[in-house]
Specification:
Mean pLDDT: 84
Order of helices and strands: HHHH
Radius of gyration: 14 Å
Shape: globular
Strand content: under 5%
Number of strands: 0
Distance between the termini: 13 Å
Low-confidence stretches: 77-83
Number of helices: 4
Length: about 80
């Protein structure tokens, strides 16, 4: 599994995220969004709320055209600690 802190850098290497973007800042944003979604779930919000939050968060990311391409190859799952 890829940690939240390494996801932006991995997306930059893959070409999905602008290489000039602040990877650490985006990492902090993703962690805040994740924790906010947890708080919404804990508070009993409707089940569609997390999807709306994710849509809004990802809409603000500096994604490249490749990231939006339906033909873009997607890497397989990454498992940390795998040999």
């Amino acid at each position: 599994m890829v940690s939240t802190s390494s996801m932006p850098s991995a997306a930059q290497r893959h070409g999905d995220l602008d290489p000039e973007a602040d990877a650490q800042g985006i990492s902090h944003l993703l962690m805040a969004v994740k924790r906010g979604m947890e708080a919404l779930a804990w508070a009993g919000s409707d089940t569609a709320a997390p999807e709306r939050v994710a849509d809004q968060a990802f809409a603000g990311l500096p994604l490249t055209a490749q990231a939006w391409s339906p033909q873009a190859p997607r890497p397989g799952p990454v498992v940390s600690g795998a040999s």
